[in-house]
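Example S7 (structure tokens).
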């Protein structure tokens, strides 16, 4: 059986060495989704930024960056107890759907935002 080698990005290319990996987002971050978006022709990264108290969206032409500045798509001041955000894989066109959880009420919501080119 042939062993598969994992590759890690260092910002310039790919390496099998874990020590060569470079961060693509500053932390702490949680609950990250990173799909390709055909409408924008870019990668999307959505996660809960606990320091901002918001769900943020970043875009990039390449997985290794450079990533755009964070765009806030939901604020904890509007949705108290915010956590657990994930991009929905069936989002198409300019409609971007994601799930978002709240502690109170303890529930998961399907959210939508519009992407602009």
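Recovered sequence:
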């Amino acid at each position: 059986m042939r062993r598969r080698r994992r590759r890690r990005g260092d910002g310039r290319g790919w390496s099998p060495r874990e020590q060569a990996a470079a961060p693509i987002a500053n932390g702490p971050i949680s609950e990250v989704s990173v799909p390709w978006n055909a409408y924008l022709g870019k990668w999307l990264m959505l996660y809960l930024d606990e320091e901002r108290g918001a769900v943020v969206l970043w875009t990039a032409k390449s997985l290794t960056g450079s990533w755009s500045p964070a765009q806030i798509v939901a604020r904890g001041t509007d949705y108290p107890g915010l956590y657990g955000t994930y991009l929905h894989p069936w989002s198409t066109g300019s409609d971007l759907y994601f799930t978002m959880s709240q502690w109170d009420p303890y529930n998961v919501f399907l959210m939508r935002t519009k992407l602009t080119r």
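Notes on this example. The radius of gyration is 16 Å.
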